[in-house]
Amino acid sequence: MDIDFITNDLIFIDIEATGPNFLKDRIIQLAMIKYTPGGERLVWNELINPGIPISEEAYAIHNIDAGQLARKPGFGLLADKIKAFIGAADLVTYNAYKLDIPILMEEFARVGIDWHITGRKIVDAQRIFHKMEPRTLRAALKFYNNQDLISAHDALADADAVVNIFKGQIERYQNATMTDEDGNEFISPIKADIQALHDFSNDPQMVDVTNRLKLNNEGVMVFNFGKYIGQSVIDVFKRDRNFYHWIQNKDFSVQVKTILKKVYKEHIDPKV
Prior knowledge:
Blueprint: E1 10-17, E2 27-35, E3 41-47, H1 56-62, H2 66-69, H3 75-86, E4 90-93, H4 100-110, E5 122-124, H5 125-132, H6 137-145, H7 155-173, E6 177-179, E7 185-187, H8 194-201, E8 213-215, E9 221-223, H9 233-239, H10 241-248, H11 254-267
Parallel strand pairs: 1-4, 4-5
Antiparallel strand pairs: 1-2, 2-3, 6-7, 8-9
Helix pairs in contact: 6-7, 9-10, 9-11
């Protein structure tokens, strides 16, 4: 199947890192495959010196060691080029919000570059897969394309696998109907339309990519963690300003801190 239905650049992305913590770990390999509405296919694949040790657990997965990265540039030296390559593209990845998107946002913020996903469509191939056929990247590739993933946890091989999974999902589900756990029926939710795929593969109540904040059924932003879970952000800040300052000084993502700073400034203290 050709990806000939897009009206905006579309990038398939995969990242290998020093570990699984998007706040503390760093990117060591970034692979991106870009498709343009004109049919062009562009590839970005770079090893990156993280400046910190690689965990044994991460090395066991991707087999990239410090020696391979010693002469590679740090993220800061590549950041402008990476941002330019991504441009205003929509993104497709596998398990988007656990590592790839959050760690990329943190890397940009760390070098003082404003990069965000506001207004950008994000398609999570894993969420589509789990909703339609609850399983791993290897299983997905075998299921949709009858292919074996030879170089698992090499970022470029994984990104290319996501390309094939994405194509296979559209081909398989274009006319399929899905019934969710609540009995709601969705007629042909999967189609060659990035907006529809974005809507289907994302949680409409999600506020940030780490899922620390969400919208409740009334559309009110609430905390999704800790002692104030389920409570209105504005109401909590009105009675506990220290909680805002605690969050700003702890290991929360730059996106969470930015969103909460805006809320605090608009509703609590404009001088913050």
